[in-house]
Design goal:
The protein is built from one helix and nine strands. It is mainly beta. It has one domain (about 20-120): Sandwich (Jelly Rolls), CATH 2.60.120. It starts with a helix and ends in an 18-residue tail after the last strand.
Length: about 140
């Protein structure tokens, strides 16, 4: 088993199991799919900004393919958004800017297919300069 882990680490270091998620101009959602052999994993990275809303959905067997989401700079208070979770959906406002990592690993005994969807919404927290107009009174 240690040889398998060494192979996985070597593959990750060589970029063979690491894939960036890039959004096309004007697009705020990206979907990727594939299959993982038993014991195989994938790491997806996405460059995101603080204040954006992220929605992530993983379609895969929850018992065989745990989901982990790591922020750019893990802290003692928030080491991960999800870690080895059977949850299939995560959404929330991002607290940091940088590369977020989404990790999936097939812990099952057979090959398994998956589909990962990542959607990002820009968030504006600056209030509008214009004051709302009062409705006209009807006498």
């Amino acid at each position: 088993m240690a040889g398998d882990r060494t192979d996985i680490v070597a593959d990750l270091q060589a970029g063979r199991r690491l894939e960036p998620i890039r959004f096309a101009s004007g697009s705020f959602s990206q979907q990727t799919e594939g299959s993982l052999a038993a014991g195989e994993g994938m790491v997806y990275i996405a460059s995101l900004r603080q204040g954006q809303l992220m929605r992530l959905n993983l379609q895969a067997d929850a018992t065989a393919v745990p989901l982990s989401i790591y922020p750019p700079r893990p802290t003692a208070q928030v080491p991960a958004l999800l870690e080895d979770s059977s949850e299939r959906v995560w959404s929330g406002e991002l607290d940091q800017s940088g590369y977020y990592e989404v990790v999936i690993v097939n812990r099952g005994a057979a090959s398994i297919g998956y589909r990962l969807t990542l959607a990002i919404d820009n968030v504006t927290t600056t209030p509008s300069d214009a004051a709302p107009e009062a409705p006209e009174s009807k006498d």
